[in-house]
Amino acid sequence: MRNLFNFIIKNSHRLVAILLIAFSFYLVFTHNSYQRSVYLTSANSISGWCFTASSNLTSFFHLKKSNQLLLARNAGLEYEIYTLKRNINRMVSNGLTEVNAFISDSIAPSQFDFIPAEVVNLSFSGVNNFITLNKGTAHGIKPDMGVISQSGVVGVVSNVSRNFSVVIPVINPKFRLSAKMKNSENYGSISWDGKNVRHAQLRELPKHEIYREGDTVLTSFSRIFPKNLIIGFVSSIGESGDDNFNVLNIRLATNFYTLQDVLVINDLYHEEQKALEETLLQ
After folding, report:
1. pLDDT tens readout for residues 75-105
2. CB-based contacts of 135, cutoff 8 Å, min separation 6
3. How do residues 139-162 score in pLDDT, each as one tens digit?
């Protein structure tokens, strides 16, 4: 207490000056309408700036959670879109006269479900490229599950731990996937030549296949991916060592430089199909 009194006495002239200045400002802003309006305008501007900064800061810290919610929502929408496409195709094949019967009896749950995940590591500095996701067996992830982005095909799950999984992406020489061009029944195989992470190659495509730059390349027969998922777009013709087949350069729909969020495809019939096909190898 004595130290406080000593401080006040020692700095009394400064404290008095501060009080007088504060009282002067009070008189000025209280009894002069112009100064008061300037003060209120400035105060509102400063308050608005503070609230905006606070809101932006809060939004930044909640961004990760919001992104996770959006990714989960996208997974649900992807499931609904696939189900609708499948059911529409079945309606068309059954004929419009059978629509009512189809709606009441034939609509079954979708074969595919989608698990949202985030990319926590991505390596494409060499040829053995891989992607690490923040989901593992604890979240239902298993080896041989397909992985897609909001733009197109990403890769296939290779190894899994409890909380993480490693994906072999399209931009890895080990990756292979059956593919075809839109509006065509001829199919080939997607692979990567190790040169450009924005492009892959569509090989084993019959020589008579008509193609144009910009044509969409889709998934075809696969035990991992649904049909007609976008892989990329034809950019040019590549070098082929076989006179019977073309090699097309494909600009990949997924940009691996900016990849952050993915959906892992859970094929509910995968184990059943795999077990049935393996009976022929016994």
Report:
1. 666 656 666 666 666 655 565 444 444 443 4
2. 115, 116, 117, 118, 141, 163, 164, 165, 264
3. 999 999 999 998 899 999 999 999
Among the three residues 33, 58, 83, which one is the final residue of a domain in this structure? 58
CATH of the domain at 259: 2.40.10.340
Q: Is 102 part of a structural domain of the chain?
A: no
Query: E strand or H helix at 201, and its extent?
Result: strand 199-206
Q: Same domain for 123 and 48?
A: no
99 membership: H or E segment, kind and range? helix 99-101
Look up tokens 């009896």; give the residue.
Answer: 105
CB 172 within 8 A of CB 129: yes
Enclosing domain of residue 42: 2-58
The reply to whether 35 and 122 lie within a common domain is: no
Token digits of residue 26: 């009070």
Annotate 73-82 with b (16+ C-beta within 10 A) or e (fewer): eebeebbeeb
Confidence (pLDDT) at 103? 42
- The domain total for the chain is 2
Question: Which is nearest to 197 in space by CA: 263, 117, 258, 260?
Answer: 258
Tokens 């061009």 label which residue? 181
Residue 91 φ/ψ region, left for φ over 0, alpha for ψ in the -120 to 50 degree band, beta for the rest: alpha
Helix (H, G, I), strand (E, B) or coil at 122: strand
Same domain, 123 and 49: no
User: With a threshold of 0.85, does the pTM exceed it?
Assistant: no
User: Do 265 and 148 touch, CB atoms closer than 8 A?
Assistant: yes
